[in-house]
Specification:
By secondary structure, the chain is mainly alpha-helical. The protein has one domain. The protein contains 6 helices and no strands.
């Protein structure tokens, strides 16, 4: 389980990737940082803490002595763009994973699941997008008699 400082860094990076806009909650408001941290930790146990250290190191290049979570939203965006410009495949995959898990958390049923009650409701963002949720398939694509 990542430490509190690491979770704060992950919360700050998901807020930079998908901030609140036009009265809509952002990824951090929806708690997506937990989804991102859990997803990364499931694939690579212990890596979330290393990721937080990496974010802090890049953050220190934007503002000397600053931790990533202490940067402004604009400065955090600079850090993410700087990391995305790195030529190593590992860094490209890391940045890609941050975007994948962040947007996956925002737009999937993850935000509609109440972990306390176990109830799953369609996330609010689905209605805003006009998405009615998964279906069993389009009957128009089936052969006659199926």
């Amino acid at each position: 389980m990542p430490d509190q400082g690491s979770l704060e860094a992950i919360r700050a990076v998901v807020e930079a990737i998908a901030p609140a806009t036009d009265g809509r909650p952002g990824a951090a408001d929806l708690g997506v940082h937990r989804h991102v941290a859990d997803s990364i930790d499931a694939a690579f146990p212990g890596f979330v803490d290393m990721l937080a250290m990496l974010l802090d190191a890049y953050g220190g290049e934007v503002r000397a002595g600053a931790r990533f979570a202490g940067l402004t939203l604009q400065e955090r965006g600079q850090v993410v763009r700087s990391m995305a410009r790195e030529e190593t495949q590992d860094m490209q995959e890391l940045v890609g994973a941050l975007f994948l898990f962040t947007y996956g958390g925002v737009y999937s049923e993850w935000t509609g699941y109440d972990r306390t009650t176990g109830r799953l409701d369609p996330p609010a963002v689905w209605e805003e997008l006009g998405y009615r949720g998964p279906v069993a398939g389009n009957p128009g694509y089936r052969e006659e008699g199926e």
